[in-house]
């Protein structure tokens, strides 16, 4: 009796009229993809089988109301679906074969990031990494269209899948640059389980392009793939419209890498390429967990030019800004991390040789970047100089409601001549910078910062003419042999910074000929100087300028305002008269360079 009932149940399962479940299947599909699904008709084609084939016609999934255009998200003229009836009972893979005719898929992503194909359920399922169990797929007379207003890209392509394999071919654009899109894959029918499925994809264009030549764990298993990637673009930001890594605008770029995807993670190995005249190599892993992305890896450059990190458009904007506000010492590099609120990671950086448009004492760079919960720390940070090392720590904290920059840098074993070769002033150089301030760029943050800046140069040399002029001895400054050198005992410069204003405390230059003190302030927001220089000779003066010398302008373009008496015959005659009458000006004694240096560097 029991055996008869079991046999009857099995027979009913093999002959079940699956078309009666059209409404239920519409509901299940709608729930699974988060969109309403309608089916015009659904009938079973065979009569008796545990692997039935069902034909569905006029399947439709509408676009959400906010999406532009009149095309449906998905419309399929006819679909033949083969599945395992027994798997419905056992919980194994159900779908076995799929044949689509006259399918039209139209995907859209809005500028605000909304995706027409995403629903709440589909978003939740996206990270599970399930592998498809499909054994046979046939697609004919079908097209796929995609438009992305957030990334600036689109494609419209014909799709064919048959016994020869998968072929996709169409046209599109990336940030307005035309491209041709092609893809191909091995036949799906007859593909053996456990054997990797080869495929190729290419986006080809003069301005931007990318290829992927690799394999998937199984047919159409885009969540589990590996292969070689190549890419090129006139600007890394243009290429980023394809790879979506949040990369900046740069000079022209060419890259190759080996990549592995094991959804939701990516592994990038053997990354090599060029950006402008810089070369790069490295590796990285990208992991997605709980709505956050973590990137860990290393980047090494044999040669690196910071200007390569600006596109031509970025360079034009920077030039226009310089023309308007003047040349600045502090870079206007953006430090706003708001777009990386869900990104963490650790990246080791090294550049063996730094390239500059002119002379510079900075030769190489290394550092470790750590980003955790909107707080970026670069430590250790090291820049090797022609002679000496600049090292320390840089931190950007986005958490209090906006970027805040903290700088703690130390300069050691350097030489003054390497920074200012045209002055012919030399001496052992050390320094210290400790600044903290809010701002969306380094320049803005420094312009609002508080802290200290200190530089000390010792035991060097200075042209005798320069030393005399700094002692306000105009006569000797003009008549001493231009090749004659004086002793530079020390340069001690300490600035106490409050709310972006750096106040000299003290600034002193002590040579064998004179001693010069500088007082006043530098406004760091625009680097405008309001300083006063007073020089005192250590020996007799030939023609001495009395009083003080104002220094205005900016750090990069100082304006030393020569007093009127030097520019007039009457003033010069007055100085000559004082010299004939005898110079009564007190002489300067040697400064306590050791004590001043210690105090400045505290």
TrEMBL record:
GO terms for biological process: regulation of protein targeting to membrane. Coiled coil: none annotated. Residues 269-505 form the AsmA domain. InterPro entries: AsmA, AsmA-related. GO terms for cellular component: plasma membrane. It comes from the Bacteria. PANTHER family: DUF748 DOMAIN-CONTAINING PROTEIN, PROTEIN ASMA. This is AsmA family protein. It comes from Sphingobium terrigena.
